[in-house]
């Protein structure tokens, strides 16, 4: 039994069954605080870890927006849940070459990942929450951040909870599940409110669906495989599909402009990932195959290309990011 499972059982014994939301929050806080889960040797691989092209195209899109907004010198690069800092390092290389000289601000709660981020981007500033970001225009990106924030699950309108049955953890009810995520709504609302007040643009990238629909999307991943959600709490990555209709609604409610939704494959193609691979392979001819394999992984419809999607938010006096039609 994991240390967290002992603590959760103790909590359930004293408080009664806990919501899926409380369970997910406790598991992920423990999980991310105690490890770097990324990469082949870890539990899962994210787009920026697949190829430098991903972060470079994010940097190109943010740099283009910043220039079209008049290149405000007080703008900062901001990232939510930056993992190993790979996306930031790749994006900033391109942003710097477009003349952007602003500071770098990370929202990250994991001390282990903050350490990795410090290696990748030594001069960044770290924060515990979106509210702590500086009151300036943001060039913000969040990749696979929203999916890790806790969700509530409702069955026939009643909160689904985790309880102890016999020897193990179990859900207290089953049936048609509706998921909502106040934590995500709050995060998106806070980003949008910041953009409205101080300017900037935000790219939110995650796996999920375009329309709100019932269904159980809570999943656990360990060592690159799906695992049981309730087993080994705190030792597996718990995520759920992002409901982009809810994301768009939270952003609009806070007054931000919201782009159409686009699949990751489509967006990377529109931003010119093929040309980027050609350019990179001119300098590294032996790596052409590697670049093509990365494009397949990032854009292929059976891989990350269709399941992963992007939505962009911006202030009314900022332009929409490129690639959203
Ligand atoms: N964006 C990175 C990592 C994705 S994993 C990439 O694409 O590779 C999720 C990231 O969000 C990790 O950095 C994790 O520590 C961070 N995170 C999870 N929950 C968080 C929270 N509530 N507040 C801040 N960061 C959080």
Count the beta strands: 18
**How would you sum up the major sheet?**
9 strands, mixed
Count of helical regions? 11
Radius of gyration: 20 Å
What structural class do helix, strand and pairing data support?
A: alpha/beta
Separation of the first and last Cα atoms: 50 Å
What average pLDDT do the residues reach? 97
* Order of helical and strand elements: HEHHHEHEHEEEEEEEHEEEEEHEEHHHE
Low-confidence stretches: none
Strand content: 15-25%
List cofactors, ions and other ligands. Answer: S-adenosyl-L-homocysteine
Query: Helix fraction?
Result: 25-40%
Specify the overall morphology. Answer: globular
Task: Write the SSE topology.
Layout: H1 3-15, E1 18-19, H2 20-33, H3 47-50, H4 52-68, E2 76-80, H5 86-97, E3 104-107, H6 111-120, E4 125-127, E5 138-143, E6 152-155, E7 158-159, E8 161-165, E9 168-171, E10 177-180, H7 182-198, E11 200-209, E12 219-222, E13 225-227, E14 237-239, E15 242-243, H8 244-253, E16 257-258, E17 262-263, H9 264-270, H10 273-283, H11 288-299, E18 308-314
Parallel strand pairs: 2-3, 2-5, 3-4, 5-11, 11-15
Antiparallel strand pairs: 1-8, 6-7, 6-10, 8-9, 11-18, 12-13, 12-14, 16-18, 17-18
Helix pairs in contact: 4-5, 7-8, 10-11
Bound molecules: S-adenosyl-L-homocysteine.
S-adenosyl-L-homocysteine binds at residues 28, 32, 38, 46, 48-49, 81-83, 87, 107-110, 113, 143-145, 148-149.
Detailed description of the structure:
The chain has 325 residues and is α/β, with parallel strands linked by helices. Helices cover 39% and strands 22% of the residues. The chain contains eleven helices and 18 strands. Strands 2, 3, 4, 5, 11, 15, 16, 17 and 18 form a nine-stranded mixed β-sheet that branches. A three-stranded antiparallel β-sheet has the order 1-8-9. Strands 7-6-10 form a three-stranded antiparallel β-sheet. Strand 12 and strand 13 form a beta hairpin. Helix 4 crosses helix 5 and helix 7 crosses helix 8. The protein starts with a helix and ends in an 11-residue tail after the last strand.
């Amino acid at each position: 039994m994991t240390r967290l499972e002992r603590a959760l059982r103790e909590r359930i014994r004293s408080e009664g069954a806990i919501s899926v939301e409380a369970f997910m929050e406790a598991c992920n806080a423990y999980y991310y605080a105690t490890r770097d889960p990324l990469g082949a040797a870890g539990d899962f691989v994210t787009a920026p870890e697949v190829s430098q092209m991903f972060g470079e195209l994010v940097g190109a899109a943010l740099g283009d927006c910043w220039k079209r907004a008049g290149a405000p010198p007080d703008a900062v690069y901001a990232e939510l849940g930056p993992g190993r800092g790979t996306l930031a390092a790749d994006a900033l290389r391109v942003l710097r070459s477009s003349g952007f000289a602003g500071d770098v601000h990370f929202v990250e709660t994991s001390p282990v990942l903050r350490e990795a981020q410090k290696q990748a981007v030594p001069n960044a500033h770290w924060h515990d929450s979106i509210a702590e970001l500086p009151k300036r225009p943001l060039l913000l990106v969040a990749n696979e951040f929203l999916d890790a924030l806790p969700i509530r699950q409702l069955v026939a309108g009643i909160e689904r909870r985790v309880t102890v049955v016999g020897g193990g953890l179990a859900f207290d009810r089953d049936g048609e599940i509706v998921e909502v995520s106040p934590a995500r709504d709050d995060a998106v609302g806070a980003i949008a409110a910041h953009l409205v007040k101080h300017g900037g643009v935000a790219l939110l990238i995650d796996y999920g669906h375009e329309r709100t629909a019932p269904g159980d999307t809570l999943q656990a991943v360990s060592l690159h495989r799906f695992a049981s959600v309730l087993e080994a709490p705190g030792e597996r990555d718990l995520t759920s599909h992002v409901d982009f209709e809810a994301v768009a609604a939270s952003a609009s409610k806070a007054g931000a402009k919201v782009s159409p939704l686009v699949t990751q494959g489509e967006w990377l193609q529109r931003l010119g990932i093929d040309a980027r691979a050609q350019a990179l392979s001119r300098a590294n001819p032996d790596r052409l195959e590697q670049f093509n394999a990365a494009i397949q992984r990032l854009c292929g419809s059976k891989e990350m290309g269709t399941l992963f999607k992007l939505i962009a938010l911006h202030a009314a006096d900022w332009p929409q990011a490129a690639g959203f039609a």
